[in-house]
Amino acid sequence: MYAPELETLDQLLGSDMPLTVIAKLYASAEAFCKGVLGLLSCGDVLLLDADGNPVPTWRWREILAPSPEAEQLGHFQLRVTPQGAKKVG
Questions:
Q1: How far apart are CA 29 and CA 35, in angstroms?
Q2: Among candidates 59, 79, 62, which has minimal Cα distance to 70?
Q3: Is 20 helix (H, G, I), strand (E, B) or coil?
Q4: Which residues of 27-64 are buried (b: 16+ CB within 10 A; e: fewer)?
Q5: Is 88 domain-assigned?
Q6: Could you tell me the CA-to-CA distances from 86 to 9, 51, 82, 83 in Å, in that order?
Q7: Which of 50, 58, 72, 88 is most exposed by smallest CB count within 10 Å?
Q8: How many separate domains does the chain show?
Q9: Closest Cα to residue 23, out of 78, 61, 87?
Q10: What stretches of 1-89 show up as alpha helix (H) in DSSP?
Q11: CA–CA gap between residue 60 and residue 36 (Å, rounded)
């Protein structure tokens, strides 16, 4: 696991965070997309919608893909899972 992914997990230990904040931990939109998809796929984080509901797997790429609709990131947040917390705690 690379530094931005570990930093993401570390930041999430405090509380859930919007994707707009998490994106700033990565060098580029592509690195953000790849890193967060990796964390999601291994079960280290959960992607939540504005109501706090888990987002279905099939929507992950659509939400995280670099696009002109990047402002949609503010409507989603990440939550660290117990598994992810163990990797940094």
A1: 10
A2: 62
A3: helix
A4: eeeeebbebbeebbeeebbbbbeeeeeebeeeebeebb
A5: no
A6: 9, 26, 6, 5
A7: 58
A8: 1
A9: 78
A10: 3-12, 19-23, 29-41, 60-64, 82-88
A11: 9
Residue for token pair 């904040």: 21
pLDDT digits (tens, 9 = 90+) for 51-69: 999 999 999 998 988 765 5
Q: Is residue 89 part of a domain?
A: no
Condensed to tens digits (0 to 9), the pLDDT of residues 2-60 reads: 699 999 999 999 999 999 999 999 999 899 999 999 999 999 999 999 999 999 999 99
C-alpha dist (Å) from residue 10 to 24, 30, 70? 14, 21, 24
- pTM here is 0.91
**31: domain range?**
3-83
Contact between 9 and 3 under an 8 Å Cβ cutoff? The reply is no
